[in-house]
Design brief:
The chain has 26 helices and 13 strands. It is 64% helix and 7% strand. It folds into five domains: 90 residues, no CATH class; 90 residues, no CATH class; 93 residues, Phosphorylase Kinase, domain 1; 177 residues, no CATH class; 62 residues. Helix 25 runs antiparallel to helix 26. Strands 1, 2, 3, 4 and 6 form a five-stranded antiparallel sheet that branches. The protein has a four-stranded mixed sheet with strand order 5-10-9-7. By secondary structure, the protein is an alpha+beta fold. InterPro entries: ABC1_dom, Kinase-like_dom_sf, UbiB_kinase.
Amino acid sequence: MVASILISISAVVSAVLVGFVARRIIGTAVGWPRSIVVGLLVFVLGVPSAAWTLRQTGLGAAGDTIPAEEVWLWVGLVALSLAWVFALGVAALVASEAIFPTRAMPNPIDLVRAALRQRKRTRRYLEILTIASRHGVGWLFHGGRSQVEEQLSTSEERANAIVATINDAGVTFVKLGQVLSSRRDLVPEPYLSALASLQTNATTLPWSTVRQVIEADLGTTIDQVFADVEPTPLAAASVAQVHRARLLDGTHVVVKVQRPAARAQVEADADIIGRLAHRAEARTRVGRDLRLEAVTRGFTATLLEELDYRIEARNTLMIGATLDEIDRAEPGRRGVVAAPRVFPSASHQRVLTMELVDGTALSDSADRLSAMDAAQRDRLAQVLMSTVIEQILVYGVFHADLHPGNVLLRTDGTLGMIDFGAVGIIERSRRQHLTALLLAALSENDVAAADALLLIVDVPDDLDFDAFRHDVGVVLTTEHLRTTGHGSIFTRMVDVIRQHRIALPGELASAFRSFATLEGCLRVLVDDFDMAGRALPLMPMLLRRTLSLSRMVTDLQAQSVIALARLEQVPRRLDALLTGAEKGSIGITLRGQDGSDISGILARATGEIASTLVSIAAVVIAVVLVIAGGGPVLGGSITLFAVLGAVIGLFGFLGLLRIVRRGFTRRS
């Protein structure tokens, strides 16, 4: 009974010890089930291995009595034999871990939840593929062509089929398509025009649901914030709907309320869109040309941001601040172009309350515009143009979706901007380059325009500069001579950028699009409005505001302070350098592109190489010593060199296992 207990305890200790040593060598978690199995094998094989070693050396013959002077040798051989069995067991455990790494057991609840999410995602994924196949655009995802797809022989037919698929796929895909329709630098015709036709028609939510969203988001009852809210929505879309309302102080406002399921639907579809984009880019030329995977990754992130109305409130406040600055500089045009006020106390993540802009969209104001005199329409166009250009070039904050539907003709004959879910922000250094580009384009200087454009884009290594400058020059020349049509010099410039596969940063793409859509708004106000000719006289004034004397002095002061601070550090650094040279302790720190310290790479590599060579040398020496034998006889047939070989080989073997550990560490 006692013997059985001792054997069991020894087996458990062996299993635990093998697992512990293997974990220390590998440096990562090792599964205990396999550790126990290997440990038991080590325990079972340990005693027979020791007995076999003693028999081979002549010290373990049956019935022989061990002389007192050889007891120490017998114990050493047993220990050495057990150590080798133990080392081989650890090696087996390391090898099994390398081939079949241990994986953490997942939580059963997490498994169930993941399975439900996977089932839901798979069902939605199959639904989207079915819609795509029904409209004949399954080739976007699987690369094949069915009989229906063969009928889409022209680009126009394929573009219309894609739009039909997007319309049927739901709100997230429609929003993504609408965003893509603004990226002329990525999407060619006729896909661009087709995407621009996307609509987000939606049924209205019942007032009880809307009221619950408002009260839950604001954290109070609706009567504590609003005097009244019209239950019938002013407008409804797939993400939100808008209601007229009146604050407690009598201010007339509009309340934008997000649909309860909008965020969940966008989040659920975002992963599917990423997977579809990956497949489309990997399997189709259109996907590769549009760089769909990277584009959709950025756009889905933008869509999720737009669902937070606190961001839109901040955008509206920034646009309002730029309009105040512009009006302060030119009081004569104050109020001609305005943005609604935001009421933060009545707004939050899913509810946005803004001042009511009473008017109609420019796209629906043809009758009112025709009733206005030409001078009034011309002044509206001139002020709108100068306002948007100044927002972009001077302040760097502008409406990134400025189309005739987002500019209202108010009842008093002035203009109001609305819908600031997308606002572009350009830093000052890029604004200066953009100003230079606009000046060069307006003055038809193709060389300067091409050079300025290359300063603000990511230039590919294989760009043909001469061909690029030629194409830019062709655009400038033809646009300056063209007197009819509703095209835009900025859309054609973006076409040139796309044709030469130049990556245009998102904020600059928004600026170019704003210039182009601004021209569309201006021609709604005045049919033959010459934006290029009207903008050129504005440039000296905008340059003065961008490069004002006070700003230049401030910049010079800032640069002087920075230079002085760096100059003050020179004596201390020079003293440290000389002191280090005197003591012989000067060192060099190497850093990678990400700023991490890589100066120790050479030392670590040298150490690893040295450890590897030493371990291999130890194993080789051990083999030579064991095979050659020789040296003093310690007892039986055991020689000193054979014992040394076994010991040195054991340490070399353990050294090789430590090298395996470093490999595991790098992998994890």
